């Protein structure tokens, strides 16, 4: 009886199954994903750091290059600020070229290029969209006494729609695309918002003779509009990964840099949200980059030995 009990007690241990070992291909894929996530995080920190330095340079320009009447005076920052912007653009361009030359590629389909599964991406995409909506609502409440109140209301409405469209667009990238026309509409809304922002900024500064007081905002709005235009190519079936990466990084940098200027708090939040949208989009693209396998050269079988 004891022997029988002993044997039955040992049976469960014999039936235990060891965890399946991952194949070398699966381990390699997981290692590449971890490395790409780390690289995407580092690049996002560099982009945000460049934007922080841009805010500092722009703030120094605002403090030292204008007199009490708001007129521009001779200052070294009128030269340093454009040179800094050019240097950052060249650095981003150099990074994109180096990545492309290292035989990295991004899937051309919408879901493969912008897949962003995980809690972290869910939080960030809804945070960026929610911040845009809050900024739009604040602008709608603060622009009542402005001379361009009508245009600012339209801008706030477009910002609200863009804030709702962004998380829905990235959420659709995690599922099979069944409504491509809807994706095209969602990706078009931020472009329309920044195009209208450009017109609004022109109308608000049409009698302002100090170009430096609004020049950075104009450049940032144009860069953000072009960045969202490039990113919309994935939804329209005409993607260009390398130009999209450069446009997203440069647009993020300028949107952060222009926060040093004074404007409605709602517009500040909309610019900050746009920077967060673009840097998250760039993070997703870098994360999904994969390296092309180098094909072995086929030796011709011509019967001759090759030295």
Secondary-structure map:
Layout (H helix, E strand, L loop, with lengths): L1 H14 L8 H41 L12 H25 L2 E2 L4 H5 L4 H24 L6 H24 L7 H25 L10 H22 L4 H17 L7 H23 L2 E2 L16
Antiparallel strand pairs: 1-2
List keywords for this structure.
1% strand; mainly alpha; single chain; 307 residues; two-stranded antiparallel ribbon
Explain what this protein looks like in three dimensions:
With 307 residues, the chain is an all-alpha fold. It is 72% helix and 1% strand. The protein has a two-stranded antiparallel ribbon. It is globular and about 75 Å long.
Could you provide a short overview of the structure?
With 307 residues, the protein is mainly α. Helices cover 72% and strands 1% of the residues.
Number of helices: 10
Can you tell me the residue ranges where pLDDT is under 50 for at least 5 consecutive residues? none
Strand content: under 5%
Question: End-to-end distance, in Å?
Answer: 78 Å
Q: Tell me the strand order in the biggest sheet.
A: 1-2
The residue fraction in helices comes out at over 70%
Element order, helices and strands? HHHEHHHHHHHE
Sheet having the most strands: 2 strands, antiparallel
Please provide the count of β strands. 2
Outline type: globular
Radius of gyration: 26 Å
Q: What's the oligomerization state?
A: single chain
- From the helix content, strand content and strand pairing, which structural class follows? mainly alpha
Mean pLDDT across residues: 84
């Amino acid at each position: 009886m004891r022997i029988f009990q002993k044997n039955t007690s040992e049976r469960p241990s014999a039936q235990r199954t060891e965890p399946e070992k991952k194949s070398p291909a699966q381990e390699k894929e997981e290692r590449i994903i971890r490395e790409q996530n780390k690289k995407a995080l580092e690049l996002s920190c560099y982009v945000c750091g460049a934007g922080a330095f841009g805010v500092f340079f722009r703030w120094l320009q605002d403090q030292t290059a204008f007199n009490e009447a708001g007129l521009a005076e001779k200052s070294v920052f009128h030269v340093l600020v454009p040179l800094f912007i050019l240097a950052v653009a060249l650095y981003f361009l150099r990074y994109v070229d180096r990545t492309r030359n290292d035989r990295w590629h991004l899937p051309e389909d919408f879901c493969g290029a912008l897949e962003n599964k995980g809690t972290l991406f869910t939080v960030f995409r809804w945070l960026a969209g929610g911040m845009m909506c809050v900024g739009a609502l604040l602008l709608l409440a603060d622009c009542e006494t402005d001379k361009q109140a009508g245009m600012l209301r339209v801008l706030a409405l477009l910002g609200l729609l863009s804030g709702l469209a962004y998380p829905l667009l990235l959420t659709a990238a995690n599922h099979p695309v069944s409504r491509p026309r809807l994706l095209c509409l969602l990706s078009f809304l931020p472009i329309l918002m920044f195009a209208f922002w450009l017109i609004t900024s022109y109308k608000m500064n049409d009698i302002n003779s100090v170009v430096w007081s609004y020049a950075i905002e104009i450049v940032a709005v144009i860069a953000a509009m072009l960045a969202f235009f490039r990113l919309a190519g994935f939804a329209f079936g005409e993607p260009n990964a390398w130009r999209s990466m450069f446009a997203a990084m440069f647009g993020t940098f300028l949107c952060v840099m222009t926060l040093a200027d004074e404007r409605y708090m709602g517009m500040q939040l909309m610019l900050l949200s746009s920077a967060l949208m673009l840097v998250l989009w760039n993070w997703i693209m870098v994360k999904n980059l994969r390296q092309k396998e180098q094909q072995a050269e086929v030796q011709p079988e011509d019967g001759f030995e090759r030295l």
